[in-house]
UniProtKB/TrEMBL annotation:
EC number of this enzyme: 7.6.2.1
Enzyme class: translocase
Sites where the protein binds ATP: D390, K391, T392, E494, F535, K558, R592, T672, G673, D674
Protein name per its UniProtKB record: Phospholipid-transporting ATPase
Length: 712
């Protein structure tokens, strides 16, 4: 049904404050349902699921056979009682599980949200919210539906959200409304808002949104940075207003859920197989006994017709044997163990309580015990054969620290003694004194004084290096008091790099949608922000284009070294080789690396490119492909500045945990975007790779065929 709906809806048209217009399209309401059954469907669906168990199906057939008097020597009562007992016990368990799903759905559907109705904000249940409604969110509230951010209590329509329920990440994300709608903070302006959004149909892509807002004869491009998705929580923002684009089962969160499936554990499959073998054994016994009966009736039985006359059904010895076969199937029914399923259900229940009672799984700090939400959890865990794990934030602490860097062919970050020998950095090693910088972050520690000396000597390469770090990012600053800066970073990497630039004298102070203000060695400098070329998993780089106070247009770019090196001007070739050696050295120490480069842009060329960008950013079809081509065009002929190296420490207990999992013969895969050397270093430090392994080898193929050949 959902697939048909998706095929039918090519693009979505949503008009604000125009319910009659939106109702024409029959969009889904905001009611959700995750339960499997209702009162009418419970009995047929549950019985259908239960009769997928071979023993249940066998006993149903047996019951039908026992109702035939010619072959049944046992009362049908002896079969129906255990069968009904098993079906009822399982049905009660399934009904209880589904009741809690219904209860959860009801709780979510009855949550309250403030909706703009006829000129005033009214409290409304979530399930009554409809596409096109304008709703108000307050701090720490869950987002009720997928909404387009219109304005917020923060300057420039900014707001912060936590997306843990969508992607598991607890660090805050920044969302920003269009400049055109960011000042609509009062009810009157919101009532007058009649913009129409034309966007993609419902889909399950959490990181992507393509749409255009048509309002007051203007077109405004919309992307994921303007959307708040259902499941997010508003944080550090007093209030915000948004317009509902997708509701209920059409929200991206629900599109990713899928239907509730009937799952069979390996124990269920094993029991089905065992019962089939037992059933086959029973058939064999029945056939042998039926053949014996036919032979006996042919040779001996007919001699007793004087005392036991044959009736019409016994006119043939073969037919008598056929009836006897079914009689034996009924008589020997205890061979098939229907009680096995009951025993297993009781064991499952017991095991789930053992998990709940496990003291080693109790967290005293939060007073939280483990909770098995399904009785089959124990055997489901026992089936685990492979673990696919992310590295950053899962194996590591996700606390990034700026550790080393390479600028213009010179490395910084190591400490040397008077004999020019490298010294290991410990807690006793003296830190660099940043007292020359009133805006420094006192928690930041760096141990190589030569980098501060280079900054003080106004080395142009070093200054441009830190200027890039202070400009090329998506961090939002919050100045709680004069000089007391707090950075809200979407990724800890960016936070670490911007904090490093801050301490070395290039302080990121504030941003608006059109400007970025830095404090460079004590002087306030405002850059005009002309374009942001976003990072994504394909590009593996991010760029910003700014105009400095002198009127020069510059492009600053940072990203994976393999990507940046491909786009360098030939004049940077020698520096590239030197920096590449430094990167390999950093990666060998398990550090996360990025390459930095810049480019001066010609005014006329940039004007032409901007016009192309404006056109591409308002197209619905293939918008991302067209933008990628434009980004690729301008990010060529870059000049290399250097590279950064960030440390991300492993969490406590990771090597020990992986050792235990290896003992359980579980195969572990770790996904990382690091360089090969970094990945190998992390592999050894967390015990995925071990010194006692015979041979550690690298598969570097880019096609299926290459990988197959290398594995062989």
């Amino acid at each position: 049904c959902r697939c048909l709906e998706r095929k039918k809806e090519k693009e979505r048209h949503v008009k604000a404050n125009a319910q009659d217009y939106n109702d024409k399209f029959s969009y889904a309401d905001n009611h959700i349902k995750t339960s499997k059954y209702n009162i009418l469907t419970f009995l047929p669906m549950n019985l259908f699921e239960q009769f997928q168990r071979v023993a249940n199906a066998y006993f149903l057939v047996l019951l039908i056979l026992q109702l035939i008097p010619e072959i049944s020597s046992l009362s049908w009562f002896t079969t129906i009682v255990p069968l009904v007992l098993v079906l009822v016990i399982t049905a009660v368990k399934d009904a209880t599980d589904d009741y809690f799903r219904h209860k959860s759905d009801q709780q979510v559907n009855n949550r309250q949200s403030q909706v703009l109705i006829r000129g005033s904000m009214q409290s409304e249940k979530w399930m009554n919210i409809r596409v096109g409604d304008i709703i108000k969110l307050e701090n720490n509230q869950f987002v009720a539906a997928d909404i387009l951010l219109l304005c917020s209590s923060e300057p420039y329509g900014l707001c912060y959200i936590e997306t843990a329920e969508l992607d598991g990440e607890t660090n805050l994300k920044v969302r920003q409304s269009l400049t055109a709608t960011s000042d609509m903070g009062d009810i009157t302006k919101l009532m007058d808002f009649d913009g129409e959004v034309i966007c993609e149909p419902p889909n399950n892509k959490l990181d992507r949104f393509t749409g255009t807002l048509y309002w007051r004869d203007n077109k405004y491009p919309l992307d994921n940075e303007k959307m708040l998705l259902r499941g997010c929580v508003l944080r550090n923002t007093e209030w915000c207003f948004g317009m509902v684009i997708f509701a209920g089962l059409q929200t991206k969160l629900m599109q990713n859920c899928g239907g509730t499936k009937f799952k069979k554990t390996s124990i269920d499959k094993l029991m089905n197989t065992l019962v089939l073998w037992i059933f086959a054994f029973l058939i064999c016994m029945g056939v042998i006994l039926a053949i014996g009966n036919t032979i006996w009736e042919s040779w001996i039985g007919r001699n007793f017709q004087v005392f036991l006359p044959w009736n019409a059904l016994q006119s043939s010895a073969v037919f008598s044997g056929f009836l006897t076969f079914w009689s034996y199937i009924i008589i020997l029914n205890t061979v098939v163990p229907i009680s096995l399923y009951v025993s297993v259900e009781v064991l499952r229940l017991g095991h789930s309580y053992f998990i709940n009672w496990d003291r080693r799984m109790y967290c005293s700090r939060t007073d939280t015990a483990a909770e098995a939400r399904t009785t089959t959890l124990n055997e489901e865990l026992g089936q685990v054969e492979f673990i696919f794990s992310d590295k950053t934030g899962t194996l590591t602490q996700n606390i990034m620290v700026f550790s080393k860097c390479s600028i213009n062919g010179q490395t910084y970050g190591d400490v040397y003694d008077e004999f020019k020998q490298r010294v290991e950095i410990t807690e006793k090693t003296a830190c660099v004194d940043f007292s020359f910088n009133a805006l420094c972050d006192t928690r930041f520690k760096f141990y190589d004084g030569s980098l501060v000396e280079a900054i003080k000597l106004e080395d142009p390469a070093v200054q441009e290096f830190f200027r890039l770090l202070a400009l090329c990012h998506t961090v939002m600053p919050e100045e709680k008091s004069e000089g007391n800066l707090v950075y809200q970073a979407q990724s800890p990497d960016e936070g670490a790099l911007v904090t490093a630039a801050r301490n070395f004298g290039f302080v990121f102070r504030s941003r608006t949608p059109e400007t970025i203000t830095l404090c460079e060695m004590g002087r306030a400098v405002t850059y005009q922000l002309l374009a942001i070329l976003d990072f994504n998993n394909v590009r593996k780089r991010m760029s910003v284009i700014v105009r400095n106070p002198q009127g020069q247009i510059k492009l600053y770019s940072k990203g994976a070294d393999s990507i940046i090196f491909e786009r360098l001007d030939p004049s940077s070739e020698d520096l590239m080789h030197t920096t590449s050696e430094h990167l390999s050295e950093f990666a060998g120490e398990g550090l996360r690396t990025l390459a930095l480069a810049y480019k001066d842009l010609d005014e006329d060329y940039f004007d032409v490119w901007t016009k192309k960008l404006m056109f591409a950013s308002t197209v619905i079809e293939n918008r991302e492909d067209q933008l990628a081509v434009l980004y690729e065009e301008i990010e060529q002929g870059l000049k290399l500045l250097g590279a950064t190296a960030i440390e991300d420490k492993l969490q406590e207990g990771v090597p020990e945990t992986i050792t235990c999992l290896n003992l359980a013969d579980i195969k572990i895969w770790v996904l990382t975007g690091d360089k090969l050397e970094t990945a190998m270093n992390i592999g050894y430090s967390c015990n995925i790779l071990r010194d006692n392994m015979n041979e550690v080898f690298v598969i570097s193929g880019h096609t299926l065929l290459e990988v197959q050949q290398q594995l062989r």
